Amino acid sequence: MDERAVGDGAIDRRSYLKLAGAAAAAIGTSAGVAGAQSTEGMKRIELDYDRYGDPSQLYNVNDNRSGIPPEFVSSPTNGSSQAIRMEFSSAQKTANLEYRFEENGYEMPREVYTSFKLYPDGIRLSTNDTVRIFWLPLTNGPGSSGGGATDGTNGWSNAIGFANRNDSPAPDGYNFFSYSYHMDRGGSGDFQMTDVPIWMDQWNEIEGYVRCNTFSGGSANRDGVMRYWVNDELAFERTNLRMTTTESNLIEGVGPLGYVVGSNLSGDALIYDDHEIAIGGMPAERDDSPPYDEDPTLVEPGAREQYEERFTYRNGDEEAAYRIYVDGDIVQSDWSQATYNESVEITSDEYAVVEATAEPGTIDGYFFDGDIVAISADDPSQLWVSGEQIDPADYPDSPPAEDQPDEPLEHVVLVDGLGTTSTTRYEFAVSGSVEKSTDGGASIDDGDAIDGGRVTGLVGGWRDAFRFSGELEELTVDGAARVSVDGEEIDPADYGDELPHVLTVVGNGSETSYELTVDGTIDTVLGDASAGGAERQTTETVTGTIERGVHRFRFSGELVDVAFATGETHVYLDAERIDPADYSGETRVLPHAIVIDGSEADDATDYSFTIDGDVIQSNYRDATVDRADSLEGTSAAGSVGAGERDAYFFDRDITDFQLVGDATVDVYHNVQ
């Protein structure tokens, strides 16, 4: 193979796939097939060009706009006696050559693998020109081309090709692209470029694998697959597509296509040889499925429901080694964007220990039970636990030594809400360990959270208690509850920063009047311009007028309202600029929260739900407030993008919930 086939712009990633293995039933032997070989779960179809006198004996030839019929030629070939030549005229298109499965005695398959050799003869493209070379696949209908809407019943398609884009190594080669009609595209086809070249005036090997999504009750799941290889290099991959909602809209056919957008390619041609097809599976020489049967520490993505948590390791630009300690069980899986890492070793003694080396730009995935107790990692790009990004610096490099006794939890902090008429929010941190306690007649509240040595919670007319070791280092209390340590009442102002957050209003040269409200305490900063330009109306609200400079305020709790009486200007929460429209006086009035978390999803997720009480949008847990999402009475509906979160506050119960996509959903009770 020419050394250029490796290409400087290669996608450096691993890819593995697990085939469904559903066989497509053969009704008869195709008259256009030189030989059909069956293996378990798969049928191979080899199209021997040397046995035919005209391409129309093998393919359904249609939509020929060039006026030049496809023909067999004796040169160039890829070792056979003849190949198919499709010559361009001044028209955009040569023809469709479709190998249609039902016309050749097969049912419409759910999955197809096909390979062919391509020789682009004399083609030279101007900047941004594109050439489509193959239908892989094509299911004819209004939803398969021409800008028609793809609804899951009316056809779909993917045309692959090459284009002079993405710094193509022109004129020697042009980069591969995918152009797909599927249910979640917008406008015309979904055009996606790669950096993997197809070389001109030489033979290239092109391979593709497509598996239809699953569906039930007329609803499509986001698990359709498309993968393409160019000269043995993975060029393109998607695993979350929706193409169809019905058995009658599966894969109709595959085959050559010549279509140019841009230059006049009159006299130039696309030449094809060695076309092979596999339906219902994947040839063994291309099947890179993870070794589920051979590796006892590896499970399929479907095993996710058997474990409590999931862990994701996203590596950066350099090879990196890491180690994870879990006080439970942990297994590797190629779920979502994660791929199989053959270097992973998992041992179990006092802890389950993962040791692995991650290649640059890769993602490793795990399912586990229990808690992560230690992480040793060489500067990972990102770490996630069940949709929550974590910082490895928050974990020790290794668990405590076995012979080191646990430090006794000899101190008690009591948050006493007895006799109060409103809710008190509290947060504190200790230098040692901490656990919930019933000291002083306190109740154990599942809604209170412990993260390392930090505790957050709330009390109404009851008590919360915690036993801890070390020292009480920080304490913030928003409300009327009293706090004592070891039976002695303390002043929260003596511990850490009573007002831990900073809110900054920046003047823009025009007079702006504003009002800021929090659900804790807010105050002006001594010596800052806010001391003269703003006024504290209540412990929760300040108002002010600004033209130039900045007004700074310190506060505890959460920011719930930013309102402008006149003008408008920039506002910063701590170090980040915020959108005032995301904060309204309604935000923090309902007790429970639901978060639709797309931070680790591959694509957008649609959702809808109904509450038998009230519901409002929220920026809880760094969610975005999207005005395009719908709220009608007690029902909400919207779409959360990949890498984003949507959140809502509500009271009472969720009575109905629908989710289409791979975002996670978390419900938090009594967060107010």
From TrEMBL:
* Chain residue ranges for the region called Disordered: 387-406
What this protein is called in its record is Uncharacterized protein
* Species for this entry: Haloterrigena salina JCM 13891
